[in-house]
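pasting for ref
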Amino acid sequence: MHAERRINTQLLRILGNALLVALFMFPLAWMVLGSFKSDADLLSPNPNLFFTPTLDHWRFIFANWNVETHLFNSLVVSTATTVLTLILAVPAAYGFSRFPIWRKSDIVYNLLSIKMIPPIASIVPLFVLLRQVGLYDTFSALILLNTSFQLPFAILVLKSFMDEIPREIDEAAAIDGCGPVGTLWRAILPLSVSGLVCISLFVFIFTWNEFLIANTLVGGRLRPLPPVVGLALTHRGILWGPALALGTVVLLPVLALAFSLSRYMARGLTFGAVKG
């Protein structure tokens, strides 16, 4: 009887998880399928799962929207932002985690408060400032601003990872002759690989999906890929096919990166759940 109940419970969990995954994956699958549909199939009032695939929308976005250039821009900005965020967040998180700092809790609260500020509330002064200092319509503006918005999140999460590393590790490194920098480099960072990968992926995805800053502070050939979807809004209506094709292009690199780093993500998200 207990075995049957256990099997039934496992089946219910499997079915529930499968239903949840299907619920989240359905819009993505519908977008990918829609990018291969003709305009007649897309605008049909009856959903059509069986159709003749076409590459017209894909040819259109690569021929008219310069997708390769904007995709390269997104890769440059997202990668540079991720690297710069980690360079600044790692020593800051290590300092908050390991050293006594005057009014540390207040500083951490202020970092959290900065993260709560919506970018749209500061976009106008940032626009004026960048025009005055000559950084408007440059990669540097996107990288610096995205880093400033992602840095509080990265510091707070990395601090929580480092808090879970026993202090005995620091003491052992000190006995071996390591100073604070040596301890961070040789002892703390190797034990924080899962957390670093997890944070890197989140920062990369947040930067990749960022729309407001990328659409406001740069233009033309320097614009990243997500704002280009606005070209689907025309005076004749919405170009649904090209919009779905471009959405698929935006989705695929991030999806591939997330799947390739999924094992690190699983370790990072459960880090510290079990203490030995």
